[in-house]
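Re: that chain you flagged

S.,

Sorry for the slow reply, it's been a week of failed gels. I finally had a moment to sit down with the sequence you sent. For the record, here it is as I used it:
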Amino acid sequence: MSMLKDNNKPITVKYIWDKDTFTKGSKSLYMDMLRNSPKRFIGWFFIGLSQFGLVAFYKKGAFGLLMLSTVFLLYWYVLRWPIRKIFLLKSFKNSPLKDKNIEITFDNNYILIDNIKLKYKDIPRVLIEKAGYLFYYQDNFFFIPKESIKEEEKFIKMIKKRISSTIDRRQ
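Prediction finished late last night. Pasting the structure tokens below so you have them in one place:
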């Protein structure tokens, strides 16, 4: 990646779309979609169900509800992402982007990806996360891993200036 000192100069980011980058981007997208979905309350439902299961077990010796709710809790909080990751990695193996060198240039007026110019106004949202940057574009997304950005604060400042909905979740 080359990042020039003048803020008006283009910023070019280079990285490889490998399994690790794909996984980080997919997890960022998945967690963001879940955060903004009613599905996030399902875990709370399972917690409540397990409390009823505990009461039923202690009062009546009924083990079924407790066992069922425990299985649901384990799936929701422990197994959900690993299972999803298995299916995502199968799709990655057949992806035309697998192990491709990616070069993205951020100019004052557009983002250039493989000779395709994207206007900043067409990017409705950017998430800044510990693992990298998730850019939403129409029904798609593109992810830039944090490691590919050498001067992160300058990059973030430039993104925030050009894309109105920039959400910083690095905490």
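What I noticed first: The helical segments are 19-35, 42-60, 64-93, 152-162.

Talk soon,
D.
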